[in-house]
Amino acid sequence: AAPLTVGTLSFNPEQKTALPAFNTVALNIPITSAGQPATVATGLSLTSDCVGAGTATLVAGAMSNGVQVATYTNNGCSLGRDVITASIGNSSQTISLAVSPANIGSVQFSGSSVSGTSIVLKGSGGEGRSESAQLTFRVVDQQNKGLAGVEVDFAATTYTGGLTVNPRHATTDANGNVSTMVSSGTIPTPVRVTATATRNGLTIAGLSDALTISTGLPIQRSMSMSADHYNIEGGDIDGQRVGIMVRLADQYGNPVSDGTTINFVTEGGAVGSSAQGACNTKDGGCSVDLITQNFRPKDGRVTVLAFVQGIENFVDLNGDGQYTCKGAAAGYQPLVGPCPSGGEPFPNPSDEPGDMGDPFLDTNLNGVYEPALGDRPFPFKNTTFKEKGDGEWGMNYLRSSIEVIFSGSDAFLTQVCNEGDCVGGPLANGAVIPVAGAAGASCQARNLSVRLADRNGNPLPFGTSVTVPSANKLSVAAVSPATINSTTTSGGTVHLMTVTPDSACAPGDFTLQVKTPQGKITEFKFIAN
Hints:
- The chain is built from one helix and 40 strands.
- Helices cover 1% and strands 44% of the residues.
- It folds into four domains: 4-98, Sandwich (Immunoglobulin-like), CATH 2.60.40.10; 106-215, Sandwich (Immunoglobulin-like), CATH 2.60.40.10; 220-406, Immunoglobulin-like (Sandwich), CATH 2.60.40; 412-528, Immunoglobulin-like (Sandwich).
- β39 (508-515) and β40 form a beta hairpin.
- Strands 1, 2, 3, 4, 6 and 7 form a six-stranded antiparallel β-sheet that branches. The protein has a five-stranded mixed β-sheet with strand order 22-31-28-24-26, with no helix packed on it.
- The chain is an all-beta fold.
């Protein structure tokens, strides 16, 4: 059989302008054998530059009267002109076709390099805290396929505090992806980034999700510490727990980054867990338990210290959100470079701490370092402990302390007042107290007040009840307050009651009962005769 020969290729209809993306055109391929129209196109091969790039297809169809018809589809080829080759054996023909790249269908935000939606303020980065985020967009055509080689411009919705976007211009990769980096400034703000892509005279923009520049380093003025309650039944009982909470914020009042570690030390009992004597913040705060056990201070008052690395207070005179150093060299970075000539001032010490020395466990909370009284520096560095600051603003151990009472379970009456006439104690369980004027001639109602405390003169445990379970020939109004609240007041708590005699002014008595949360009962008998 005679070999097959490929004739001159042509388009139907003839293409006088560029074939738009996602349009098709018929390609006529004449094939002869020995000068006569062939009836088959065995071994026909169809190729093109765009087909090779995956941005066009050539599909052979029917053959009639010696002409093989193929359908060419432009799937957004960006080469500008495609060269098509049809070959059988040693016979081949080529034809070129102008093609238009795909127009942009949309600019899609793909995601961010940071988990969550926030980055920290400039100068506040560290482990787990990023000062920048890479934002990725994808430019796609009308078929949602990535477009390569598209120029994209980036812009932020705000540049507050020196926020930057870099690069400002980029080109999409083979999959249509393009990225830029957002770096935080010194002032908290929400921000979005706009990606604007242009092709074939068409401009389309896409917007990123919101990114929050919010969290800086903790600052001393925004550190707070509290306990669930401050008088726990731990003077005589081990294993009682009370939650200790610490909350941190930066100079703008924004909660610090999750995972900020706060350390604790205690004068008595134990603090923390078996895993660690610290906690890691979530949404700006975290807590540990203080557990009652030895050591127990003689006065029953236990100081708990929390400390964490952060920045000292300063007065932001120019409102730029960061510490400003006067006369600093170009490129000065707070917390990194030295400030040779001083900068913005510390606050007035009478208002809030400024230039701070090293933290210490202040066992009597008088603010004076007294090692002879049991004060201890933390972290342990006795040889270099500095009670006063160094005169330079910067990083330091922020600190806060609270006092928790390890209250005894035995109640004592330390004072009883009858219409303002007071006698002292202490009176222990079973004591008998006379109530003058509540029986006999000219008897009348008497207003009593009693002061209750533990053996150290401290308040009884939080939740202790004070009631009158029984009375004879006397009526006693409900004790007020009937429950001991959270307090550290020295001397205990005062409780009021009104004692009313019966109509015959007969002698009588009543029992005052004090019951702690752990069930320890102390009773006092009051007698009118």
